[in-house]
Each structure stands twice: as C-alpha cells, then as structure tokens.
Amino acid sequence: MTSTTAELGLFQTHTKAGWTVGAAGLIALTLGVAGLVNQDSQLRALGVDPSKIPTDDPLRITLTSSSVASVNNGAAFLLGVAKAWPWFPHFTVVTRGAQAIGFLTRIATGRAPKSYLSAAIWEAAGAAITAGAIWLDRRAGR
Questions:
Q1: Which of 26, 142, 140 is nearest to 81 (CA)?
Q2: Total Cβ atoms within 10 A of residue 141
Q3: Residue 101 falls in which region: left (phi positive, over 0), alpha (psi -120 to 50) or beta
C-alpha cells in the first residue's frame, strides 16, 4: 500500500524540485525574520553606521519592506511545498526569472545600483536550479 504525500505528513517532498523550493523558502523566511529582528546588523552589512540613520529614513523603510516581503515569499514557498502543489516549482521558476529580469532591467537603465546585480544573480540561479530539478524529476518519472 502506497501513501500519498499528504498521508506522509507536512513537508515530506519526494522531488528534487520540491527540495529546491523548500530550501529557498527556508532561506527567505530566515533572512526576512533576521532583518526584522535586527535591522542594525543589515545596515552594518551594507557598510552603514546604524546610529546615523534615523528610524524614518527611506533606507530603513526599504529594508523593513524587503524583510516583510522576504518573510511572505518564504512562507509562500514553504506552503507550496507543504501542500505538494505540482505546479508550484514551475511557478517559482517563472517568478524568480521575472525578478532577475526586473533587477537587470533596472540596473541597465540606471534606475538601480550595480550592487543589485547580486540579487539578479541570486534569483536567476535559483530559477535555474529549480528548473534543472524539474527536468531531473521528469527524467525520473516524478
């Protein structure tokens, strides 16, 4: 008698694509919470002295928004894996690819600093890794 993913329990993925999406979700959730809990460490990592940045500064507002978005994305990725939605890894490939293109477009048009290139690479690499895992899963008949 075989068990379904739901019968095995939450987060019991058996696909490489599920593992890549779950790992990305866990990283996003962790980094988002870390940013909300200790924004000063984020500022120091950016080379900014937190004592010189007031609480209503646009940089702090942007970091807060980014951290909240990261928590949201991480939770959504983990939910997609937990519910074993078969289409979800494909969805993450498309959305992460779109984010990479968005970052690259902003950089190319001078509307974002070149330091955003690391974010574009992160999103493109994540999309490529998940796409590769989807391909491997298909070859394995999953």
A1: 26
A2: 5
A3: alpha
Please give the residue range of the domain that contains residue 59.
15-139
90 in a domain, yes or no? Answer: yes
DSSP 8-class letter at 53:
S
Residue 15 DSSP SS3? coil
List the structure tokens of 27.
């990283």
* The total number of structural domains that make up the chain: 1
From first to last of its 142 residues, what are the pLDDT tens digits of the chain? 555 545 555 556 789 999 999 999 999 999 999 999 999 999 998 889 999 999 999 999 999 999 999 999 999 999 999 998 999 999 999 999 999 999 999 999 999 989 899 999 999 999 999 999 999 999 998 7
Residue 51 DSSP symbol: G
* Residue 5 forms part of a structural domain: no
User: CB–CB of 74/26 below 8 Å?
Assistant: yes
